[in-house]
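Provenance

Sequences were taken from public entries as deposited. Structures were produced by running a predictor on each sequence independently, with no templates supplied. The record for Carbon monoxide dehydrogenase from Kouleothrix aurantiaca is shown for reference.
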Amino acid sequence: QLFDSMPNNIDHVWTRKRGDADAAFAGAHRVVSQRIASQRLSGVPMEARAVVAAPDPISGGLTVWTSCQGPHLNRGNLATVLGMDENQIRVIAPDVGGGFGVKIYSYPEEILLAALARAYRLPLRWAETRMEHMAGTAHGRAQVADLDLAVQEDGTITGLRMRVVGDLGAYPVDPVIPELTGQMAVGVYAIPAVDIEVTCVYTNTTPVAAYRGAGRPEAAYYIERMVDLVAREMNMDPVEVRRKNFIAPDKFPYKTPAGPLYDSGEYDKALSRALEISGYAGLRAEQQQRLADPNAPTLLGIGVACYVEMCGFGPYESAVVRVEPTGTVTVFTGIS
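Predicted structure for Carbon monoxide dehydrogenase:
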């Protein structure tokens, strides 16, 4: 046990039950099950993190240049920790050098450098090495999921059961990210009954936080892989299974059993266009030809996936728009 206040190293458990999942599985023609791992990874942007902090001797304020994705979030955190008003602090995000989510947060180095700059009344700088980045900057993913789908004879999915263990690392900065996996569990499919449990646990590893979609790509990976397994189990085309289970356009706005409210969507139309552009029918024919030819030098793999993603969480930022006498417009915004 890593922390006395966290029995069994569990930070929290997020659950969602809607519909009668037990009945869906009891009445299923087939139950498709799979354990899926979404491995831990490091963001590895082209440039690691770097910070410059300079005190303002006149105002008593502080200017911080940091290669971050959330300057307003960082300003608020700096003000809280340093006991300053937010309007005393200016955070500037120059060229970030790649972020991918791991540069959203405030890290100890930003806070410490700003505090030291104020204490010594000197501008100070710090740049992260690649090894420091691998060990200290937040990682992503790090989940293991056990999934079951209840399937009828025609390929209709009537129930989802999902158990996820999300590795938060030792000192997580965003411990709710695995919940997003649960909230997006059904993807683009009209699955009427769900039984979802997401357990967020502490481990003695680098913290896990946002990376390229932050919990939502994991959900897309799980449900799309499961739909492919349904297609294989039922001897159906993966496209046919998806079309049979899409949320219909006339059902929007659609409240999913996992929680989110989808405002609109025409998933069949989008998929049909993708199949047309890619020449899907021809690719399937070529795939069968290669499979039938024992002398074929290579085989042809074809993957199909559909997804939807909720976004726009914040942090909420401010902007200034100036219309100059010349007719030009100048926009100041915190977006990096």
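The chain has nine helices and 15 strands.
The domain at 50-136 is CATH 3.30.365.10 (Aldehyde Oxidoreductase; domain 4).
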